[in-house]
Amino acid sequence: MNLQFNEDQIDALREFMNVSIGAATASMANLLDAFGTMHIPKIEICNSDELADKIQNSIDIRSMYFVIKQLFTGKFGGECMFVISEDSSINLGRHLYDIENPSFDEVNDAVIELTNILTSTIVSRLTQELNTQVQFFVPSLQFLDAASIVSEEDVGEYSKIIIISTILDFKDKQIKGNVYILTKDEAIASLRGLIDRKIEEIYG
Amino acid sequence: MNVIKYPDILLDSLENGHMIIDENYTVSYWNRWLAINTQIDKEDIIGKNLEDFYPDINYKVLHRKIKTALTIGTPTFYDTNSSKKFISINRNKVTTSSLQLMQQQVTISPYIISENKVMISIYDISELFETKLLIKKEMNKVNKLNEKLEAEKEIIDKNIMIMKTSVNGIIKDVSSFFCDSFNIDRDEILGQNISIFKLDDVSDVIYKELWTTIKNKKSWNGELKYITSKGQAKWFQSRVMPILDIHGEVHEFNAVYHDITNEKLLAELYITDSLTKLYNRAHFDETINLIVKNQRKADSEFILVLVDIDNFKVINDTYGHQVGDEALISVANTLKSSLRDNDLVARWGGEEFVIMLKDTTINEAKVIVEKIRANIENSIINNDIKLTASFGFTKYILGEDSKEIFKRVDDALYEAKEAGRNRAVLK
Lengths: 204, 427
What we know:
The complex is a heterodimer of chains A (about 200) and B (about 425). By secondary structure, chain A is an alpha+beta fold. Chain A has helices at about 5-30, 50-55, 85-95, 105-130, 150-155, 185-204, and strands at about 35-40, 40-45, 65-75, 80-85, 135, 140-145, 160-170, 175-185.
């Protein structure tokens, strides 16, 4: 299976992602009353066994993290992962519940809510750009140390992974998190097909 | 295209709860599952406000989630692990009591966006959640056991000498304490044969006995002398155990060692003459008394030899005590090198030595004693001093006590001295 992307495909994907990230930033401002920025997304195609290192290299390995994973399926399927440190999560809980000391349950729910908005907006917008639909599954939440976020054994069965990553930053609220959209093997091929169709549609 | 004519019936037949509310929480649909599980009939709640029935819901959060679903057009979710329930529903499960209330997965999906209506779906995930709790509980137990095992493994590793070998004696693993005791890196010895620790001066009989025992699937206990990487000989009380596979065949050997080098050195000091390094009189006495006491024929076939350096007082007086000591050491070395491994030689006191020639006939003894006499005569001390020695020897007679044989050998030595020294007399 050819899992390589040509330059045009990467450019198009980057452009769709920029639009999606913009939509997510607007959603958060509208729904959470939080005005943040999101970095220009980074798109990488790597071997599955490199994923753990790539995630660990983008976060502070000394912190504990809330890790929320949400699956989506359709012609383009995959997994959205939001990684947010314990401190940022507590600040998010304070903001959303408007209390000084949110409980663990409240922090969990706040993190899930943010993930929901982020992933729904980004993925919905991306798939809208690609003229396809996706179904979202219930997000799962774990509280982990940096080394346990992704185990190499767990991803060992895939060959290639696309990592689309960005950083969400609400400076005034001291909330920062990393968003990863992960997709593998067949879904990569399918994504390539969708991008080609869209390029064809735009440029003829 | 087929259109479902009775969506109410469809929603009522689902095994989960569905309600439709607007952004002001006015209920416009309440399915059968909700009616049964909450004991609130649809007639009683439809058209009313959810807040009147469930005031404990955090409506600020619910409002935000409704807004999210309506704005983005995708479902939003509550945390499925939360201890706070969206609405409280009692569980009737009797056989377990870990969950009193139904654990719920709550999804808020956009229903009619133009009317700001959403559908709230409630799924019973109690069984799944209970399983998760059970796994977590069991995992905690496993982790605690693992921690305990690891701690105990570390204690064993750091305090007990253990070695695992293949059936062919190839070293498969060793404990840290083993490496420390042998001044060796673990990686250096893995894959090597156990024979690297073997000392040449240890009888093969011991190793043969060891291998025969363990290859016959039995444990072997005994003392082994090994050499460390620094060339130091060490004694170990050893237990070597065969490990059998599921077919009952020897799969590998495990050995546990205890360093007894210090005990061995102390024991040797106790029975050794400090100047000549021969056995001392006490050890010789103990050995001969044991033979006499047991009266075993196999042990009783021995010749007793008493050796006395001729004119030793003259050497001491002429050259001093240091040269006298050198003479004693020289004679001791000559005796040792002239005898067989199983003969016993000791310093009897002063310039006298005693020898037990085991399993020896009188004729053989004559040859051996003459050889020793000649060897002493031919040795030179301090570059120019020559020595001679006189010998008395006799065969042990079964049944006699040690005093009797010593009396006889003493007489023989006296006769040798009287006859002009540097000779041997048999009695």
